[in-house]
Amino acid sequence: MDAGQGEPDGDGSDGDASGGDGLDEDASDGDGSDDADARGVAATSAAAGGEPDAGAPDEDTDARTAATTEDAEAAEADADAGGADAGTGAAGAEGAAPALTEAQAELAAQKVERERIARRKAEREAPVEAGAKLSGKAADLLAAVRAVESGAAPAPVYFDEAPAAPRKAAPAPPPQPRPVATAAEPAAAEIEGVRAVLARGGAPEALAGPAARALGEGAAAQLVEDPWRLLAVTGVRPAQADGFAQALLGAEAGPADERRGAALVNWLLDRAAEKGHTALETPVLEKALAQYGVPEPAAALEHAVGEGAVLVFEEPLDGPAPTPATDADEEAAEAERPVRVLVGLEEYALAEESLADGLARLAAGVTAPADWSQAAQGPGAELIRAVAGHGVVTHTGGEAAGAEPAALLEAARKLGLRAVLAAHAPGPDRVTPAALLAGAQGPGRDADGRFELDLLVVLDAPQLDVETAAALVESVPDGARLVLSGDPGVLGSAGPGRVFADVLAARSWPQVVSRTPDPGPIGELVSGVGIGELNQVHAPGKEVVIVPVQDAGEAVHRTVQLVAESVPRAFGIPADAVQVITPGHGGSAGTRALNAALKERLNPGPGRFGGFDPGDRVVHVPSPGRALPARVVSADAQGLHLDLAGVRVVVPQERVESQVRHGWAVTAHQAVGTRWPAVVVVLPGDAAQALSRDWVYTAFGRAERHLSVVHGVDQALPNAVAQVLPKPRTTRLAGLLRALTAAQEGAPQ
Q1: How many Cβ atoms sit within 10 Å of the Cβ of residue 16?
Q2: Exposure letters 87-112 (e unless 16+ CB within 10 A, then b)
Q3: What is the pLDDT of residues 505-554, one digit of tens each?
Q4: What's the gap between Cα 504 and its chain centre?
Q5: Which of 24, 89, 346, 604 places its Cα 20 to 30 Å from the Cα of 527?
Q6: Does pTM top 0.85 for this prediction?
């Protein structure tokens, strides 16, 4: 990067000395929930046995963020970090049920869609009785798993494979009013019963409310029967559940207990989902179980499958099947095709299958191209022509390519079509996917529960997790068109799945690649990062500036100076339009430290309401994965009043701590989907291990006119751009889409 050394106007000053305590990795920082997960109570007694080596990394950082700092193989690497468990982080979570919030309304909307998906699944598959202990399906699945592990060829019919052809969706029920108490608060007696059981097991009584909510009706009895069910509570770690079980069961509690193995399988898959996986390969899962002291991991996994806690799938590996010499050998050749066996939780399996079915349904719904020739002009002509002839189209490109979906939207509306633009970040003439699903924005639903529209264009498609994507696609009516648009180089979704990447990898439908380059020195720099090169760029107008620093204290000082003085003076950009991006929340130059310093300089005040004052820039996180920039207006008995792009939102007092944080400095995950006139990217020395190509690409790409890089990582930055690729995610969607497409192509016309 060419760009001037120092600040835009050449100012310089000494930094404050400060030590670093390490940054939280940013892979799931967008949820904003780390503070709530990290607080609370002391751990319970030591594990009953089988916990990995206690010399694990410090886990005092938040549970969700710690989950993302491990290797991409999810649970396998997670197990390596086992022994030093953090506090459960659920203290203070209990209490009276608050009024319905925006997040609850959104979750309720998604729950309605998931219930509809589950009904379709139930209609498609009925249990088959076979054997004494397991039903036929489960027994067959277990036999197939063991066959694969032993090297034998499994029978394909044993597995829940992709359907041979798209299934017709069952009619959706008419839309119902959103219930005010979808997740009912447990009764006081229920919570007291759980508190008593927790006290007997030496667990913090503050977990009573969260445990009652997580386990549902009869939570106390469930814990007595199976103490390891405590792992279902957010923040509880295996060592704590083991200590709780040992206190309740005494000598009966041991690492080989089937209940412990089943609970660990679910816990590991939940942790994997936090890192973006929708399933795990059986060897990875079994190795993780072994590292947590399960003596017979294969048997534990078998038991979990038999109990119906998880599902197992077969997926062919890449590459053609062996060519049979004769027709008689065709079946044998197919059986010899290499496969991998995956294990996953039901909710993500259903979501991926529903999403694949829905996309295939929409693709098949457009049987003849529409005549949009008069509208196919200008920068979006190629995209308009593709959408005219197909039900599902993908569109890729950088920030400048956003003009093409906008042209498509304008053309569709001129043709009299009901067109809707959905995007991760709020803005004019667009809705967010969450608000669209909740019915707060966008079109209504018809009698079948589907959106009243003809074209849905989704920007920032890489930010779609699999459950949100499934709910959206299920809601698009037959005959309508869907466009998924986004930049494949940015950070992926905060939730599980890699929807956009899987749809692109399947290559089942037209893919329009934008040829519009991002302009200027910033566009040139970001484009180079996208292909693994940190190029020097000529920035005569100081569009890109490098500010070298020696330590985290100096990084904070320089950042405040850039935001408050240098950038406004050199470019006429007000401080409120300058966004700071840093790799994590913790550390001496993370968002917490930077926001504290920026607040003191830009909007000093006593923090009269939970640390906030009127005028503070904040980030509102109504649900995991959604980080909305806002400003504090006022506070009263109702809660904290925020202004979100002209819309007033009230965050109840009891939710302020978990849903609102200061927003002068954010992580790259929180910044994705939004751009600012000027951006200051802070890279302190202790952030080196958190850097990757997609992180740098996302952070640098948020700037429109000016980018300052507070640089303290030396060669870690070019090394990350060149060598540290995005962490892979294990999913099934691409395989499902390929199978559906192949079935469609081979079906008789």
Answers
A1: 15
A2: bbbbbbbbeeeeeebbbbbbbbbbbb
A3: 999 999 999 988 889 999 999 999 999 999 999 999 999 999 999 999 99
A4: 18
A5: 24
A6: no
